[in-house]
Fold:
Amino acid sequence: MRRGGLLLVLLALIAGGGLILGFVALGGTDRLRTQAAASADPCIAPVPAGQGGAAEVEATAILLGSLNAAACTLGVPRADLVLALGRGDGIDDAAQQLGVAPQALEDAVLGALTTAIDEEEAAGRLTPTTALAVRTLIDVVPADQLLAAVRNDSGACAELPWKPVDGLAAVTAEIGVLTGLRAACTLGVAPIDAVSALADPAGLQGLAERSGRPPAEVEAAVRTAMVASIEQAQAAGALAGSEGSILGAAASVAPVDRILAIVRGDDDPCEPFPWSPTSATSEALAQVALIGVVDAACQLGAPTFDVFSALADPAALATLEQSTGASEEEVNAAIKSGLGKGLAAGQDAGDVSGLIAFGLNLALSQANVLDLLGNFVG
Structure:
């Protein structure tokens, strides 16, 4: 699906209350009446509306299919489901209006959405990255908080605990979702807008346009939110200590859009990583490490975050070697070469002293690949 359709999909697939926002974004009540006339029985799949571009039609199809499936499961008219979710104060209130159990309502809606996402991804109409982002958003944020997010209620800004997930891709997806939610509350924009904007390479500009805030203010808010989310993942054990420390410190000074790209997994590691002025040794060392990992990722033809992970976990290192066809010695050489370039950049900028560089270069000549990152945790 084109990136222009990502916002529409997220608007449509944000769970319970998001179905309402999705309908508003896609034509609201008029679209509902049109489809209801075509199929009053929620157990009959609706025919997608033909209005709008391809991405909008796809989002509408996902939305209508999910609504129908949930309504069919609950044995209620689709219109009643939409109105109950839109008018109620939460899942309990909506369930009471529909005469069903709250858990049954939540299970029906989330189950229908999950099935729709799976089907769209299998058909190639949703990219794996987009599908994972939507699943993560649904999985991480409680249903009532999703409803609050759609309505822009204060409850949308409640702090969320880290939810344990399996796999590096799921960890980075959760970091991205939490970053978007935190940034939204700081900037006073709809959480859905922030999460969806940050999933796009041009997200910072889009978020500035949506919030009406200067780009510098938006970048500062996202940076703060991203550092907090990375620290939360590290505290929960989802990131290894060295991974979280380096990524968090680097996120404090490095270009926000580049860190977001690394977290999203769409960073081009062969694009030179610029040195940003630092005010602390920990920030300088973190930036050296980040430049080294990015450069190694380019040499190995691997995603940047995969290289990070490989330096903190033997199993991840083995996976990286298998996926790239590189030996441990080749990975080790790539990392050491990249870190050497990072040290040179830090020295050129005057942020890394000659004494520190000498000590780290000595460590690089002796350290094993799994011990390299620890040398750069300031």
In short: The CA atoms of residues 35 and 47 lie 7 Å apart. The two ends are 42 Å apart (CA to CA). The longest helix spans residues 328-349.
